[in-house]
């Protein structure tokens, strides 16, 4: 029997098991993270090793440095996740790894590490889409949450409004026509001379600033639920460069607050439109947020006010589960396992893996 055939049989047997423990690894960008998740809902351990200080010097993630750092950290982070869960490898039922989207070298490090481990231990390996991981962070924060629900996915590379119709089933409703929200935050931060990663820094500065200091464009788009951040970004860059050329000091808190307001305003407007459309159809949708930008304070406040106003339920991921972590990968893997998704030893990294 091949490894894949044996894995399929094991996966089938695990569906009938009362408890399933998954050891998951995430290495798609600049965090080496591992976790042990029980039944898709309980975090037995979660270890995140951030490489931020390695990349800060360069103002962004350097792919080659990221791959090497993942290689050096993988073993330690996996060992620590097992130790914190009070387990050894034979005590977990399956392994899981992010295979895309992300940096190819970074993904390959994790994929190869977990293929070797799964083969040696004779355990099934579950391939996980990183963005599906972000959405699944909500299952850890809200143990009773089940599809169907609507989800605003806002990360470094994605700004999507989707419908989660079942576990592992997504339908695209709207998306950015250009930059992702996180990418826009990072670029705006760079213009203000803030270190990488810029999103959290803009968010912190913005708390002290005037969101109406600078009026930024609000694009008109064809897609009913689409967003666009490229015009906002360019207008922001021009305004900052203009101030610099005139020798004016940069009111960084006001600039950060204005930019954050413009981004969150668009996201809130399109989400509100979607929720109102669904209400008009007689539905009472649940809304969830996912991805690194869902840690943004203004976005969380806006969405909270919106859902309270409409009398709808809002699910926000716990702050430490908004950005990259292994726990969300273990949760997504649990539901993929139930659908029978197991990888063979030919599993490859897919840098541009689609989510919807
Ligand atoms: O989801 P994530 O960890 O990585 C991707 O899968 O892309 O998101 C990282 C992105 C970065 O662009 C970062 O600047 C942004 O999320 N981010 C934030 C905040 N925290 C992280 N953006 C705005 N406000 C925040 N508080
Ligand atoms: Zn991510």
Notable features of this structure?
12 helices; Nucleotidyltransferase, domain 5; about 15% strand; globular; alpha/beta; about 350 residues
In total, how many domains does the architecture comprise?
A: 2
Q: What ligands does this structure carry?
A: 5'-O-[(R)-(carboxyoxy)(hydroxy)phosphoryl]adenosine, zinc ion
Write out the CATH superfamily name of the largest domain.
ATPase, nucleotide binding domain
Order of neighbouring strands in the sheet with most strands:
3-2-1-4-5
Assign the structural class, choosing from mainly alpha, mainly beta, alpha/beta, alpha+beta, or little secondary structure. Answer: alpha/beta
Judging from the principal axes of the Cα atoms, what is the shape? Answer: globular
End-to-end separation in angstroms reads 34 Å
**CATH topology descriptor of the largest domain:** Nucleotidyltransferase, domain 5
Number of helices: 12
